[in-house]
Every structure is written in C-alpha cells, then in structure tokens.
Amino acid sequence: MKSYWNDKEAKGCGRDLLKMRVYTSRLLGKEEDLVLHGGGNTSVKIKKKNIFGKTEEILYVKGSGWDLATIEGPGFAPVKLSALHELVKLDKLSDMDMVKYQRMAMTDPNAPNPSVEAILHGIIPYRFVDHTHADAVVVITNTAEGRERIEKIYGKNMLIVPYVMPGFILAKTIYDMTQGIDWDSLDGMILLNHGVFTFDHDAKKSYEKMIQIVSKAESYLKAQKAVETKGEKSKKIDPIQLAKIRKSVSNAWGKPVLSKLNNEPASIGFSNLKTARKISGRGPMTPDHIIRTKRVPVYLTRNHDKSLQNFEKSYVDYFKKYNRGEQILDTAPRWAVLPGLGTLSFGNSVKAVKIIEDITRHTKKAIVQAEKLGGWTALPKKDLFEMEYWSLEQAKLKKAGSSKAMQGKVALVTGAASGIGKACVEQLVAQGAVVAALDIDKKVLSCFSQNEVLGLQCDVTDQKKLAECIEKTIVQFGGLDMLITNAGIFPKSSKIADMSEAVWSKSMLLNVTSHQQLLQLCIPYLEHGIDPAIVIIGSKNVPAPGPGASAYSVAKAGLTQLGRVAALELGAQGIRVNTLHPNAVYDTAIWTNDVLEARSKHYGLTVQEYKTNNVLRTEVTCKDVAAIAVAMLGPLFSKITGAQLPIDGGNDRVI
Question: Average pLDDT, stretch 298-309?
Fold first, then answer.
C-alpha cells in the first residue's frame, strides 16, 4: 500500500485543519483498495468561537452522500463534540433519533447529514480520525480464523472489535470497550468484517498509520500466497444470450435495467472456478456493500430463466425468515456469475452499473484470497438482512428520487455525429437512456462526453462492421430497446436522363439497403427488448418529391415502404415501427451560412424568411426533429405503428 502524502501539497493547506482534512481524505479516497463509492469516513476536531464568543469544539465529519475521493470542505458536517459525548452515554438510541439529534447538534443547518459513525469519531480522543474498509484487512477477517490471524499480525496494541451494526450500537460498544484504556497504547482499531480506524493529532501520522496497517495485511496475504486467480481468454460470447438475461432481470426488477459484462481475465478465472457457485453464495465483502449488491449474486446455468426463478424464490424465503415488518425490496439480482464468460453487473444507470462492477471486482478478488486462507466466511444472513433493511439505508434509497422516462433503456442511433442524429442522441440521454452512437465520421468517438453514450465509428454499408458495433452495444449495455435509423446522404441534384450509375447506386446502398441490413441485425435483439420501438428518419421527398432528386426521393420512398412492411412483420413481437418525414431542417452541416444566403437570395427572401417558409412560419431544427423521434419511441406512441408523420412546419405540397 503506497503512501500518496506529498509535503509540498500538504504545505499548501497551511494551518487550516479542514483543508488538511480534505487533503488526506482524498488521499484515502483515491485508493480503491481502501474505500469504494462512498465507503469509509474521516473527521477532524476544530475549536471554534460561536456567535456568543464562546469557544467550543466542533467535529467536522464526512457528510452523507459525499465520496472521499472527491470530497470538499462543504462535504464535512460540523457537529458539536459535547453533544456527541452526551449521546454515547445513553443506554439506547434508535437510528432515526440518532440522525435527528446529530442534526440538532450541527452548527450549520445547510450542511449534509453527519456520517452514521459521527458519535464514534467523536469519542476517539484525537484530532484526526480515518476509517476505511481496506480490502486486505477485510479479507483476513472474513475467514474462519480471522480474529486469531489479526491478533497474530498486529499484536496487543490493536483494538479488535467484533462485528456489530454501524451507528450508535458500534459507538456504544467501543465506548464501553475503551473505558480505562490508554488510547496512546493503540496503533489503531480493526472492526471484524468491517474495516480499520486510525487516529492521531497529526493528519500525516493518522494517514500513514492507515497505510502501514493495510500494508501489513497485504504482506501477510502475499506470504500466504493468497493471490487472485487469472483466467484464460473468454469463450465466444453469444450476445443474444446476454440480451435474454438482461430482459429477465428487468422483469424481476420491475423496470428496465442495464447489464454490463466483465470478461477481464480475473473475472473469467472466478467464473471458471468449480466452487464459484458455492463461494459466491456466502455473502458480500462488507455489510455496507449489501445495499448495492444484495447478499449474493445469481449463478447462471444454461437455463437462465430457471436460475433467476430460483434466485427470486431464495430471496423471498430470506426476506420472510428475517423480516420484522419491513417491506420487501425487488427480488432481482445485482450481479451474476456467468460460467466461462465472467460476471454481469445490473443497474438502471451507467453509474449504478459501474458501482456494482467495481464492488464485485474487489469482492471476487477477496473471496479467492480468503479461500486460500482456509475459506471465505461472510457475516450470518441475519446480520446482513439487518444491514440491507436498515432504516437509514432505506432512507438513502427513498432520497434517490423518481427515474427519468427512459431510465435503463438502450438505444442505437445511426448518423449520430451531427445534425438530426446527434440531436437524437442528446435527447435520448436527457430522457435517461444509454445510446450507441454510430457514424462513419470518427468525430463520433469524441463528440459526446456523457458516459451514457458509446461512440462507434462505423460505415453502415459494411455489414460485418455493423454487426460488430451492435455486438459491442450488447456487451456494454446488455440489450437493445430502441433504434433510430437515420444515416443517409443527399446526392447532388441530377435529372434522370443525366444520372450516373455511381450516384444512383450509392444512394440506394446507403439510403435503403444499409437500413434493411441494420433492421435485420437489430431485430433479434429488439425481440428481447423492453417496449421495443423503431423510428425511421424519412424525408418530405417521399410525399412531395422534387425534380433532380430522383436518387434521393426513390431511396427514401423505398425506405418508407421498408418501414411499413417492418411494422406489419414485427407487430406480433410487440415491436413498433414508425417513420418521421422532416423537411427544411437548416441547422445541419450541409446548410452553411453561404449556402443559406445563396438559396434565400435565389427565392428573393431573407435568410430568416427562407428558413420559415412554411404554413406555420416557423423554423424546424434538429432538436425539434429529435424531440418527436424520441417521443415516437416512448409511451405516447405505445399504440401506434406503421405511421408516417411529417415535421416541416406545414409544407403546402405535403398537405
């Protein structure tokens, strides 16, 4: 375990203790083997004068919802230390009352709720307190002889605390254990199945004590040859299999969810273990992970549906056995072991999936290491249930708010690097969807900054490349629910008599054939999609063609007819297919200022008059087209298929 302490950076904090607290908290937070996604907490005690001029000691402790890796000054909740010292003396204190009284003792009502470990931080008689869920230490404690191993590694100067629920109970337990103890004799505290505490009046010393304690555990694991199992290259992935699994998990969850395959060597190695089903079913790495991952993953046999049904039944039985009036959560798994392929992570957003993937990556490694120390032993089911259904954790879930309309859904858009396609991608993301954005222009790889967008450079006329991009989409997101087939070209104006074969063929290939190939490749996935729908971007030239545009108009008419037939063929599978006919959309790359000025001058109009030359005298933008296209994919059009809708401000020839 490397120390990231930098004297020059630390000097920049000056004498500001809160700045120093932020600095060392971030040092801890940048190391995944110490804390993951909001795990761990830190504090500093600072003397301040209140409004009455009296000096009082304030505990600045990590606030709920903040992450140590990115925490700032406002992320620390200021709580009167004297109040915390009084609270710990109570015989009993409910979780909700603890939160209430801690908040009442805060000196800033706008600060976040203090960590549930605030009372514990308060009773530790040192200025700086650091708490992590260090992987190496937790691995050792999660074995049959965990306590004995910890005692052997650290000796008598380490306070070893048996597992109890976080919050008041933990603080009270340690308060009772340390009555009459000389705190200066302690190197730190190790909470079995939970993590590590270090403390000192000096920030650097407290931080480096943490590094030293964890390094000792890592050295012990290395000496015991408790190393991670590496796997061979993954078997060939069947993306249809992944789509089916994701659909089944979404059904169990009651809403669309994403699925991400982790086929890194370590993940494949874990999935190939003969004991993978048994050892992964013993419980999570630390109890605080359970709200993210549930107690265990689903082990997927060839009969995926049966595996999921068994998981759901087992979860219901687990709930019935331990619940004391709580309301059951969804019965869907949060991760899966897929023998020979690796593991899957499930969540209704890219962020949620990443959290699950990160936690399970560390969990798999920890399980394998613990097995080499004699066997992985997680906490009993009863303790884990109490954590999963802990009132404070349930409160966090309720604060998550309502989901966006397309949260957890997967879309694919072609011609996505500019114009209508780009606007469609942005609109879909705004509605909560994730999107595979395809374009022949390599700028598609960099024009979207959102993690929700998978940019893929692709010539849609190359069927092999197109199939590869669709497969990448399934591996990345789990399935496919929505398709906007938009890629196309507008050939240079040419009369039929003068039309070159190359121009005609290119238009047919890109404006019709590539769309047919895209549909052919996507339909097998859409059949396992959630409320699947397709929108075809047609053209005003279908109902109202113009001279000199035969190559374009005929191709778009063929594309429209393709959509009508697709609607007839796919309706039985619940897949909707509708076509949108835009016209005079001028905020695209082909309509430069020079072109607009030339065209408007040709008709004796100003540029603004030219852009609004329709019945409604309104301008139609890419964003307008995208809004309608995305609406056609959603519930508003749930009973409509085979329709053609113009978006042109009212074209008199179309009308």
Answer: 94
Looking at the DSSP bridge assignments, the partners of residue 199 are 129
pLDDT at 222 over 90: yes
Asked if 330 and 408 touch (Cβ cutoff 8 Å), the reply is: no
Residue 626 contacts residue 632 (beta carbons within 8 Å): no
State the pLDDT at residue 590: 73
Domains of the chain as residue ranges with CATH? 7-223 (3.40.225.10), 239-398 (3.40.225.10), 410-585+620-647 (3.40.50.720)
CA distance 62 to 170: 17
Tell me how far apart the alpha carbons of residues 241 and 301 are, in angstroms, rounded to a whole number.
12
What's the gap between Cα 228 and its chain centre?
25
pLDDT tens, residue by residue, 452-464: 999 999 999 999 9
- Tokens 């879930």, residue? 397
**pLDDT reading at 212 higher than 80:** yes
Give the N- to C-terminal CA distance of the chain in Å, as an integer: 72
Closest by alpha carbon to 483, among 524, 526, 516, 440? 526
| Residue 643: other Cβ atoms inside 10 A | 15
CA angle, residues 426, 427, 432, in degrees to nearest 5 = 95
Q: Model's pTM, two decimal places?
A: 0.92
Beta bridge partners of 645: 580
Amino acid, res. 601: K
Q: Tokens for 172, please give them.
A: 């009270």
